[in-house]
Amino acid sequence: MRFSKYTHFFDIGDGTLGVFHSLLVRTVFLSKQEKAEIGAYLDEGKVLTEEVRKTADYLYSNYYIVDSDEEDENLYNQCVDMIYPPAISNAYIVVTENCNFNCKYCFISDIVSDNDRSKVMTKEVAKASVELLQKTYERQKHDYDKTITFYGGEPLLNFEVIKYFMQEVDRMKTTAYWPDDVKFAVITNGSLLTKKHIEFLRQNDIALSISYDVDKHSHANRANRLGYDTYDVVRNNIQLCINEKMPYSLSITISEETLWNKDSVLQEILSLKPLTIAFNMLIPNKHLTPSNTYYEEATDFMIECFKRLRSRGLYEDRMMRKVQAFIDNKLYLYDCCASGGNQFVIAPDGSIGICHGYLNNQKFFSANVLDKNFDFRNTPDFTYWKKRSPLFMPECQDCECLGICGGGCPYAADYMHGSIYALDDRFCIHAKKVLEWLINDLYEQTKRK
Ligand code: SF4
Ligand code: SF4
According to the CATH classification, is domain 90-381 in 3.20.20.70? Predict the structure, then answer.
């Protein structure tokens, strides 16, 4: 008998160890003394006291201790067998690649200048996209979350096509199978938002997410195409949402400036009371390579915000997904829908890809909505992305975050190291810090109880 290769120990600091099973996503706490005694029993056959024997039995029956490598292997295979077949969960409809902003950290900004494909979606492509989604949902009939997200560039620059798309969905609902749990969302920079848009979004139950970096200094990264600051116009339009009682979420990119202004950012989030927030860490691009210190500090900031905001019932999306998996003892295999090959990105010209990071060079855009025979389940690109999870990556097998990190952003891994199957190592810094915090936080909560 020995400790499983998936058992990892975390020093909590008061003579206690957090013992985390990286495949079953389960945690128990032991004293260092208990761990030493169990170690001596496993290594040298030393006799255990009755109390420690009970602990060892518990660890054995919960796979923290195993008889052999084969037992670990069986457990791993069982986890792999539980993975669902691919199903499209999110569809980004890129209604335009044009944007009226020129954000400094935008990792797809080169799209605007670098390709000569059609940059504005037509009604014909929108109609074909609805038909493709209908067919896809009908084929997969899966209870996965399903979201259609209008995206850009700046999607409100092509509002007519968003309206048309929704009319087509309504028409489709009356003539063919359309699941009733499909959600809709739009991610906008907020600068063009008017009462007319708000009314339409409300009527069509489209969730509104505004990219806004919350304080004036941080938001200065989001200048418009002419180089002018956009803070006031976006803040005014957020106020419009508040006045109109339109729920909205904030998508906040954590820049170096955000970290310099942490307190004011947090205060402003609390005063704006968005429905949810989502933090984005910087993705490297050819103009920007953030340091490892940045990822550490950004994670500390996210943890601090999570702690402060949860007491007000406000949850940050990215952290919450991991917290939920940790609480539910569930494997968290993918950190974004692209990672599992569970996402469509439909470009304005109708080409279908998996991740919007590749809109520019069209890598992994191997089909088109006008192709009536397209089925993502037989398309090699989608199959290739399906296994992009730490569970299948050799470098991840001994990592404590194996079952909880989701593997970060494959696009960033590809950008930095030439393959989506490389490590997104900037994200590893984040994932390891978050897990350590989760275990410490669980210990504090358990002690309080
Ligand atoms: S791979 Fe990265 S850039 Fe692409 S959808 Fe996922 S998180 Fe976003
Ligand atoms: S991606 Fe990084 S943090 Fe996640 S399991 Fe692999 S090595 Fe660990």
Answer: yes
Report residue 111 as tokens.
Answer: 């799209």
**Domain boundaries in the chain?**
2-82, 90-381
Does ligand 1 lie within 6 Å of residue 340's CB atom? no
Task: Please give the structure tokens belonging to residue 257.
Answer: 């400036």
pLDDT-based confidence at residue 109 (cuts at 50, 70, 90): low
Residue 280 — left, alpha, or beta (φ > 0 → left; ψ -120 to 50 → alpha)?
A: beta
- Amino acid symbol at 265: V
The 8 Å CB, 24+ separation contacts for 284-290 are 284/107, 284/412, 284/415, 284/416, 284/426, 285/105, 285/106, 285/107, 285/109, 285/110, 285/415, 286/110, 287/104, 288/104, 288/105, 290/256, 290/426
- State which H helix or E strand residue 251 sits in: strand 249-254
Count CB neighbours of 53 within 10 A: 14
Is the CB of 331 within 6 Å of ligand 2?
no
Residue 205 pLDDT > 80: yes
Q: State in Å: Cα 416 to ligand 1 middle.
A: 14
Residues ≥6 apart with Cβ < 8 Å to 136: 88, 344, 375, 376
If one residue of 420, 423, 427 were mutated to test the ligand 2 pocket, choosing by the most ligand atoms within 8 A of its CB, it would be 423
8-41 tens-digit pLDDT: 999 999 999 999 999 999 999 999 999 999 999 9
